[in-house]
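For reproducibility, we list the full input for the manganese (II) ion complex.
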Amino acid sequence: MAGYGGELSVPLVGVTAATASDSRGVERASLNLSYLRAIEAAGAVPLVLTPGMAREQLEAALGRCAGLVLTGGGDVAPERYGQARHESIIGVSAARDTLEFAAIEAAERAGMPVLAICRGMQVLNVALGGSLVQDIPSMVEGALAHSVQEPRHGPAHGVEVEAGSRLAGIVAGTRVEVNSRHHQAIERLGEGLVVTARAADGIIEAVEAPGRRFVVGVQWHPEDMAGHPGIGESADRLFAALVDAARSNA
Ligand code: MN
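The corresponding predicted structure, in tokenized form, follows.
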């Protein structure tokens, strides 16, 4: 059958990108390939959403999608949660905040499944009225190292997953070893979210919206763990769960 509507077994999943200038000053859409490969490996087709696209086009694009992945990246503007900027704030993009706030709102309206990764979990939390710890190393005493750049697939630290949560069902357990490339964390929870995993230092590592709709946020980077034997199985399951939910939502 022609058209996206006839391809329910291979759903389209929207995925948010950043913009960046290359060494010659040429503006580019910027998105680690690992996000696209992880979505494809789970059986869906990624549709890239870029900062600066018109609201009407974003709505039209998401109208053809059955799921949404909010990706990692720079910090959400602290003004979005009513705070002055800490000196460590990096990579703020008003256009990207605008894109993702609008995408979250559209996904909510459509009952669309959402997988929110790293910055994605933070922007989801802020969009729902929550706030962030602006800089873990300087603001959280006794915190573990959460900015561990290599190896990208991890592990950097463990997380304890809340028994009975959707996440525990997905990863089939209550302990996951994860990578960690973030200097911020959730402070006050957004409306409708519950904490489903923490690191040993108390830092929130996963959230979800209880109920039927699939809304899962993780502070780690499953897209870089996916496909790695011995460490990536929980990440493979996360993307598979999103795509399963997208198929039921399509
Ligand atoms: Mn971490």
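Residues 4 and 64 are 7 Å apart (CA to CA). The radius of gyration is 17 Å. Both points were considered when choosing residues for closer inspection.
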